Please model this.
Amino acid sequence: MGSCPQVVDWNSDGQMDIVSGDRDGTFAVFVRHDSELTAYYDYKLTDSTVLDVGNNSQPAVVDWNGDGLKDLLMGEENGSVRFYQNLTSDSWPMFLGYTNVEAGGAPINVYRPNPYVFDLDMDGTQDLVCGANDGYVRFYRNIGTNADPVLAPEETLKTVAGVPIQPVAPYYYGSRCGFGDWNNDSLPDFLISGYEGMVELYRGAPFVGARESRSQPVGVGLSVLPTLGRARFRIASASPGRVVIADGLGRAVAELGETGPGGVLTWDGRDSRGTVRSGVYFCRLNTSTGVVVRRIVVSR
Model:
């Protein structure tokens, strides 16, 4: 195989399937039917040719262009990250041609990239993170939108002390990475592995690995103030827009709806299930001119 498999509901039937690349550059899908898996090796394109990137394919399944359909990002040995757009539906994604993902106005070029999509800077748009053969992890900030991603030039992912992250030597090469809430504190933790296969954990901090550098959109303001309850917040907006509360992994936990200029909304700390959980959250105001993010700490 030579690839890090991804668990995803490929055919949208409510059961989790497995997708994987391969050293030979092909792509495979393993569809679950209760306790059994059906393998689709050498996955075909719409013209019946095999999806083949050459060598060392590494997939990431994600809605890359904001149309509501699962697309495919594919890292390949020679350095590019390919975007295959889903041309059919989520019940059985199909692809034809591809475009090379660009960063800083030029195609990404890093030997054996392993793409992972995640909203690392917590601004409401999905970014691209890539492990690579040299072990270092590249962060490509999305300065566009989810419907039209525009990636800034690469940054090297670092700890809060400014040390570049890399798997332990001497088996650092071929780094693969992922994010999750490992210790249930609503902050994104970071997992990385190298050639030897050992997995290393980096505990998260707000905006881990990236500095928030976006300027606030002109005429847009957002303030978040605690009220008398420890888990109740007053959210005041100077501009019309939609207010969403997200956890440390970028997942929306509460939709507060639309607010007009000078509008005030209140959040009681509860998620969509009515549960109050202590942790760090982010209040996002999405307007026609940009996105503003404010950090919230909930204490029960």
